[in-house]
Write a structure and sequence with these properties.
Keywords: Membrane, Periplasm, Signal, Transmembrane, Transmembrane helix, Transport. This protein has helices at 2-28, 48-58, 70-79, 91-99, 176-186, 196-207, 220-226, 237-246, 275-286, 288-298, 305-310, 313-316, 325-328, 338-356; strands at residues 36-42, 61-67, 86-87, 133-146, 170-173, 213-217, 232-236, 250-253, 259-267, 331-332. By secondary structure, the protein is of the alpha/beta class.
Length: 357
């Protein structure tokens, strides 16, 4: 009997340790239960105090993980090995996730705070009747430039970027839709154009801008512009707001010839284990006080009409980040172009980047 105990006790101890390790790993990898909520969001895209507030109000423990692209987020959810209760994809990604059956329809009876959302940002092409998503943030793509470096230049059209006087001064965001889009808009075409002749023309025109392009980068744009390392950049409105707060010589404009109006929305992935908790979190974030706190912290525009009224006047009245309807009507949301056409956009963008070298 003693011999058996010597054999089985270590086995039992090891088994218990393995179970504890598995539980810990499941939690870190996004396992959620009724008392846990796993959120998958962009980096630095929520005021941390709101997570604490939600946990205190609901008793639900939040596990917060981040991604750096819609594609990375979708891949992880498609693989299914990781459980997420909330994700925050962009407009075109929501359309793709719907097509691939990766989302759970929302129960609107559990979201009474959606009444505070601006009707302009509801029932959009990527999610009819908001069946699967609720608006989180929105913004624009535009041009940020240094007024001291270029006091006499006007950057209200994309064509301004092709001026030879800007040699080695422009930072471009590293995105095919954004860069190809500005090329298309500069020619008078839609940034969702699928005409290959138009796309080739946009690529050819972009090549004429290459002497002006200092670099094609990501988050580095913020630091480089704030430190006067470049004079002009193509960036998103929220990133621009952060740069303006760091450098008073900078200005942000939305080109008159068209640009991107984007949305990031909250969704419940098919992987969700705590669907009720997910609805509680979405409704919590739609509460005007919380939406205002989040907008002031992150710097992007809130789609919550009542929250806008709670923001400091210098924020809510700034038309660079809360443009009027006339300007919004000149902007386009990215369509889901399908894998084949998106690959073609990426191919042309890669050719443009290689041409620079």
């Amino acid at each position: 009997m003693k011999q058996l105990l010597k054999i089985f006790v270590p086995v039992i101890v090891v088994a218990l340790l393995m179970m504890l390790l598995a539980t810990t790993m499941n939690r870190s990898e996004g396992y959620a239960g009724s008392n846990t909520l796993t959120i998958y969001n962009w980096g630095d895209y929520i005021d941390p105090s709101l997570i604490t507030k939600f946990e205190e109000e609901t008793g639900i423990k939040v596990i917060y993980q981040t991604f750096d692209s819609n594609e990375a987020m979708m891949t992880k959810i498609e693989q299914g090995g990781t459980t997420f209760d909330i994700a925050v994809p962009s407009d075109y990604a929501i359309s793709k996730m719907k097509e691939e059956n990766l989302l759970i329809p929302l129960d609107h009876s559990k979201l009474p705070n959606e009444k505070y959302l601006d009707p302009r940002f509801m029932d959009l092409s990527f999610d009819d009747n908001n069946k699967y998503s609720m608006p989180y943030f929105w913004g624009t793509l535009g041009i940020i430039y240094n007024k001291e470096m270029f006091p006499d230049k006007n950057f209200d059209t994309w064509n301004a970027l092709f001026d030879p006087e800007l040699k080695n001064q422009i930072l471009l965001i590293d995105g095919a839709r954004e860069v190809m889009g500005l090329g298309l808009n500069s020619l008078g075409y839609s940034l969702n154009d699928t005409n290959k002749a138009h796309l080739q023309a946009a690529r050819d025109k972009l090549e004429t801008m290459t002497p002006n392009v200092k670099a094609i980068v990501g988050d580095e744009i913020k630091l480089l512009m704030a430190d006067n390392e470049a004079g002009v950049a193509v960036t998103f409105s929220g990133e621009a707001a952060e740069m303006l707060s760091e450098n008073e010589d900078l200005e942000y404009v939305i080109p008159k010839d068209g640009s991107n109006l984007w949305f990031d929305n909250m969704v419940i992935p098919k992987t969700a284990k705590n669907v009720d908790g997910a609805h509680k979190f979405i409704n919590f974030m739609l509460k005007p006080e919380n939406a205002a706190i989040n907008a002031e912290y992150v710097g992007y525009a809130t789609p919550n009409a009542k929250a806008v009224k709670l923001l400091p006047k210098e924020i809510s009245s700034d038309e660079r980040f809360y443009p009027d309807m006339d300007e919004l009507n000149n902007l386009e949301v990215y369509d889901n172009l399908g894998k084949r056409m998106l690959s073609y956009y990426n191919e042309l963008f890669l050719e443009f980047k290689m041409y620079r070298k």
